[in-house]
Design goal:
The chain has eight helices and 17 strands. The chain is of the alpha+beta class and 311 residues long. Bound molecules: 2-oxoglutaric acid. Its main location: endoplasmic reticulum.
């Protein structure tokens, strides 16, 4: 497989060239849910790693050393006590159903779960150039003893999940590898415009363009084409993990903000807290300083005003 190396800055430039039609059709993608534009600079670049271009069909990039060992261990430790057999989306109802298509176990973590998760979410926003508000929570998967995830698309086939009020269609996926797999466990794209070959790949991986699960790396690929239509070349699967353990964490990013806008949180009378569910995210993006009037009345907890008010 031919790979091209980029620094993140070069990649950002390329992305702006290749993805211009997507952004033209997605003006909401530039809003963070507060009416403020989230520019590249505003996300305060922190990750400057190596980006390896994998293919254009699907549009896929490998982000080397995207996460630290501590971050990988932290996610596994949070997820491990809650792992259950994985479910898949039922195309007719939009609900979750158990399936032999995905034999791994999994769980999910709420967005903004803690400081470490927020830092990772911010990094995902930086590399995708789409604000955190467009991300779903983290999905964590664990595969062992030949467990796999058969070929599927990340874009939705049903109108329920792709509803505009839920953020619309998924546009891009960032799949983070939390462990290095000894044998198998590759993510493979059987409809890609190229195939891997050679002894280091499993037979399953050789069916298409594949990526080895390597701790700390992240695979970023697009489910939609630049014109916004579903990309059939984004079909992908997780090959059976035949030796070792595979832990992965997936971020799905939508064309519009996922969180319900202006959703009120329940506060007891006299309680000092946040009265919007988005307060933590707004605070993270600096709204306590940029928009102090609104934030001091609606997001006291996230702006750390409760301590001051009680003293
Ligand atoms: O774990 C993998 O390699 C694939 C995961 C996946 O396909 C997904 O989360 O949609």
């Amino acid at each position: 497989m031919r790979a091209h190396l980029f620094t993140f800055q070069a990649f950002a430039f390329l992305f702006s060239v290749y993805s211009a039609p997507v952004l033209d059709t997605l003006p909401d993608a530039l809003l963070n849910g507060t009416g403020h534009t989230v520019g590249y600079g505003e996300l305060k670049e922190e990750w400057r790693g190596e980006v390896i271009h994998l293919s254009w069909a699907p549009r896929a990039f490998l982000l080397k050393n995207f996460m630290t060992d501590e971050e990988c261990d932290h996610i596994i430790a949070l997820a491990e006590p809650h792992m259950i057999k994985s479910m898949v989306v039922d195309n007719d109802t939009g609900g979750s159903v158990p399936s032999e298509v995905r034999t791994s176990s999994g769980t999910s973590l709420a967005k903004g779960h803690d400081d470490i998760i927020r830092r990772i979410e911010k990094r995902v926003a930086q590399v995708t150039m789409i604000p955190v508000g467009h991300q779903e929570g983290l999905q964590i998967l664990h595969y062992q003893d030949g467990q796999k995830y058969e070929a599927h698309y990340d874009f939705f086939h049903d109108a329920v999940n792709a509803a505009p009020e839920q953020g619309g269609q998924r546009v891009v996926t960032v799949l983070m590898y939390l462990t290095t797999v000894e044998e198998g466990g590759e993510t493979v794209f059987p409809n890609a415009d190229k195939k891997v070959s050679g002894d280091k790949w499993s037979d399953c991986a050789k069916k298409g363009m594949a990526v080895k699960a390597t701790r700390g790396d992240a695979l970023m690929f697009y489910s939609l084409k630049p014109d916004g239509s579903n990309d059939p070349s984004s079909l992908h699967s997780s090959c059976p993990t035949t030796q070792g353990n595979k832990w992965s964490a997936t971020k799905w990013i939508h064309v519009s903000p996922v969180m319900p806008q202006n959703k009120k949180a329940e506060l007891q009378p006299g309680e000092c807290g946040d009265s919007h569910e988005q307060c933590a995210e707004w605070a993270y993006f600096g709204e306590c300083e940029k928009n102090p009037g609104f934030m001091a009345s609606s997001c006291k907890k996230s702006c750390k005003l409760c301590e001051k008010l009680s003293s």
